[in-house]
Amino acid sequence: MLPLTCTRLPPTQRRLLDHFYRQHGSRMRAAGEGEQWVARTAEIIGGMNLTPIGGDHWLTGLFVAPQWRGQQIASRLIDAALAESNAATWLFCHPDLAPFYQRLAFTPTTTLPEALASRLARYQRSKALLAMRRG
Fold first, then answer.
1. pLDDT digits (tens, 9 = 90+) for 62-81
2. Is 2 strand, coil or helix?
3. Contact, 20 vs 77, CB < 8 A?
């Protein structure tokens, strides 16, 4: 395997994450606010967003290129992005993904900041989602 780096994208390079998502047919987008993180070998192979919510973070847009899945790319990307954070990190996921996130120290929760609680309620009208928190 080629050497892997997980780094924050400078704001001026946010479009690279959007391009990565589109290249793989994903409807995800680089968040307008917050930080974008990428995993790279020779090219971007994974990405995610950390959006500020109060003093905490909301993790969205976690995506790893299909040919790189099963190689702990997502785990390494999340760990790198959250390594120096003492804030809580929230995410919404399909219930089938809960075991993956639990291995990364996320726990299911029903107590959310209001900004996320209302968003989750809206999303749950059309899909099954679980809220999880780390920290």
1. 999 999 999 999 999 999 99
2. coil
3. no
Short-list 32, 48, 123, 31, CA closest to 131:
123
pLDDT value at position 11? 92
Helix segments in the chain, DSSP class H = 14-23, 73-82, 98-103, 114-123
Could you state, in chain order, the average pLDDT of each consecutive group of 10 residues for the chain (135 residues)?
88 95 95 93 96 94 96 96 93 97 96 95 96 96
d(CA 132, CA 109): 5
Walk me through the domains of the chain, giving residue ranges and CATH numbers.
5-134 (3.40.630.30)
Q: CB-based burial of residue 97 (10 Å sphere; 0-12 exposed, 13-18 middle, 19+ buried)?
A: middle
* Residue 26: Cβ within 10 Å count: 14
User: Are the beta carbons of 50 and 59 closer than 8 angstroms?
Assistant: yes
CA distance 100 to 70: 11
